[in-house]
Amino acid sequence: MENLIKNPPVPNPTILQSEELYKYILETSVYPREAEPLKELRTATYNHPLGFMAASPDAGQLMAMMLKLLNAKRTIEVGVFTGYSLLLTALTIPQDGKITAIDVYRKAYDEIGFPIAKKVGVEHKIDFIESPAILVLDKLLQEPEKEGSFDFGFVDADKENYWNYHERLMKLVKVGGVIMYDNTLWGGSVALPEEAVHETKRAARQAAIKFNKSISADPRAEISLVSIGDGVTICKRVR
């Protein structure tokens, strides 16, 4: 592995339980292709007190590939934190692409992510809205032209509202578009008995279980729950 300044340990929980194998994946496949601005942002996020909230770089690599396969131009993101996935999206979509980014707090992004986005010249692609996401999504849906106007969505926010976000994003993202939901395996705790899970993680675990069950039965979507990072559900809108 490269030195810790350039590639700090990934702080958030991951599904892959073999540390050696996970390091191999990062060193062989992820880090060599990770853009320098993303490395810089990941390092800065690692030093943040809430660094464990960051998206994992291997999940980010998958996200970048999805954006390219879709030729995505208009995207929407719920949950930003320091902006790793937001910067990744801004670097991936075309110069005239646009991202609607929503988070209830923008301080971490302003302090860490925005300066890097500005330095590499992609800040013009980002429309950051500081607000509870439900309010913003509902407001967007009041504008008929916004329905089906997004190519791609990414959600990494409060797990209790994942289904509420899903219902709205399934109207905002076009048929054939994709939504990715992060942390849907919640450190693997979804497969454990509740008593084996720390009390502080039980509410989010239950929310993840409920969401996984609901989305698996959604006839409007094709899905794949991928055991990468902390679990990522890829959802394609088919109707």
UniProtKB/TrEMBL annotation:
Keywords: Methyltransferase, S-adenosyl-L-methionine, Transferase. It comes from the Eukaryota. Gene3D superfamilies: Vaccinia Virus protein VP39. InterPro entries: Cation-dep_OMT, SAM-dependent_MTases_sf, SAM_O-MeTrfase. One of its GO terms (biological process) is methylation. GO terms for molecular function: O-methyltransferase activity; S-adenosylmethionine-dependent methyltransferase activity. PROSITE patterns: SAM_OMT_I. PANTHER family: CAFFEOYL-COA O-METHYLTRANSFERASE-LIKE, O-METHYLTRANSFERASE-RELATED. Belongs to the class I-like SAM-binding methyltransferase superfamily. Cation-dependent O-methyltransferase family. Methylates caffeoyl-CoA to feruloyl-CoA and 5-hydroxyferuloyl-CoA to sinapoyl-CoA. Plays a role in the synthesis of feruloylated polysaccharides. Involved in the reinforcement of the plant cell wall. Also involved in the responding to wounding or pathogen challenge by the increased formation of cell wall-bound ferulic acid polymers. This is O-methyltransferase. It comes from Parasponia andersonii.
